[in-house]
Amino acid sequence: AVVALIAVGITLRVRESMQYDISGTAGNIWFDAVKVTETTRIPQVVHGAVYFYLQVLHGLLVFFGNKMTAALVLQIVLQILTGIFLYFAVRKLTGMVAAVVSLAYWMLCPVLSGAVILGPEPLYQLLWMIGLCVCVETLDSFRGRGDTPGIRSVGGFFLSGIVIGILGYLDVAGLLLLLVVFSVLFLETKQQVKWMRRICAGALGLFGTVVAFFVCIALDAVGSGKSFPREDSHGLPSMNSRQFTHMCLIRWPRSL
């Protein structure tokens, strides 16, 4: 059933992508911003997830050339992988039946399967689902051996926190995964686990989040120089990097 749903999901998205104008005459803000030319400069967008998407899309076009088809295939792959990670996360949380239902909705829902358009949302949704899988795996490990003395049984929460911090830097929606980490306070375990140990596990997750978040901010400040370039190498005004940033902040939703 899982393989069949994935196959149907791919088919629906490929059919939808065939209706997309790939001639390039209509223009696309994302494609035009990163297509490979002698003067290409990726705008320094202030939103982390958008900037990361532009880098990924630009790298794809460097490898395959300025082909809209390659960009659309990337969107399809991102959506399918997101559904797969959703399936694994839900299966760990609630079981096989709920996982299959969730996968079926993701693959077959017209709103999702018909949304094969360029944009950063599918990439961030994939990263968010990967983060969810990491958090769920940490909870599952704690459920089985949370009473084990030492740091090993709760160390995974620090790793989950690092993932959440990175996702929170890319977009504030990543911080929602802290709710999954904090659910350790009420998690049903195989053995009796002391209340203080549960609190320590949640605190480790929060600490990892804070550390990763501020490290990302520091690295971004060092890499970007804290300013936008005003002119390009030819002395021309830098695009519209300000206009592009403003447009991205308007178009990109702040939640999944």
Topology:
Elements: H1 2-17, H2 29-34, H3 48-64, H4 68-94, H5 96-108, H6 110-113, H7 121-145, H8 155-170, H9 177-182, H10 195-224, H11 240-251
Structure, described:
By secondary structure, the protein is an all-alpha fold. Helices cover 67% and strands 0% of the residues. It has eleven helices and no strands. The protein is flat. The chain starts with a helix and ends in a 5-residue tail after the last helix.
What descriptors fit this protein?
256 residues, mainly alpha, 11 helices, 67% helix, flat, disordered C terminus
Task: State the shape.
Answer: flat
Fraction of residues in β-strands: under 5%
Instruction: Characterize the largest beta sheet: strand count, sense, and whether it forms a barrel.
Output: none
**What structural class results from the helix and strand content?**
mainly alpha
Give the distance, in angstroms, between the N- and C-terminal Cα atoms: 27 Å
Using the CA coordinates, give the radius of gyration: 21 Å
Mean pLDDT: 78
Specify the helix fraction band: 55-70%
N to C succession of SSEs: HHHHHHHHHHH
Helix tally equals 11
Number of DSSP E strands: 0
Low-confidence spans: 227-256
